[in-house]
């Protein structure tokens, strides 16, 4: 897919396949991610299997904009300002989930979920076409320290477990910075591509 001007027909085809239950690998402003339809139980299980995740793992809802993000998490005014100042960008925020979030996506004890708004042309085009968030997780394989960054490499290694790989050339090489706001104060869970200084 063209990195600056994604072809509408291709974007539409990928969105249709996601609606039909496909699990894809796609580029973001941090690194490649696995993505599927919001309510896809099969997609969640496949992501868990590929990454060997337990039920305490925070999945991320990748949202097009702030309005969409606000449907799925509860954000008070102070947190709103902090997140607004950092989006779009390479941050994932953990927040209390609203009723719009399927229970299987929420942390079993905390009832929280991760959300982010990426600064990536292809991802934004896909989210606009979908009209809802993508359920996502960083494409970081078990026992590996770094995520894969090349579309052809992902296809080569994961073709048997993915339905599609969206390749638009180079993307980031570092996962997002994860900030947990579920307790009211900013807690840095993972230092990644986003600058943490504003949250310290």
Automatic annotation (TrEMBL):
Gene3D superfamilies tied to this protein: DHBP synthase
Entry superkingdom: Bacteria
Matches recorded under InterPro entries: DHBP_synth_RibB-like_a/b_dom, Sua5-like_dom, SUA5_domain
Sequence ranges assigned to domain YrdC-like in this UniProt record: 8-194
Gene Ontology MF terms in the entry: double-stranded RNA binding
Name of the protein in its database record: Threonylcarbamoyl-AMP synthase
Organism: Streptomyces aquilus
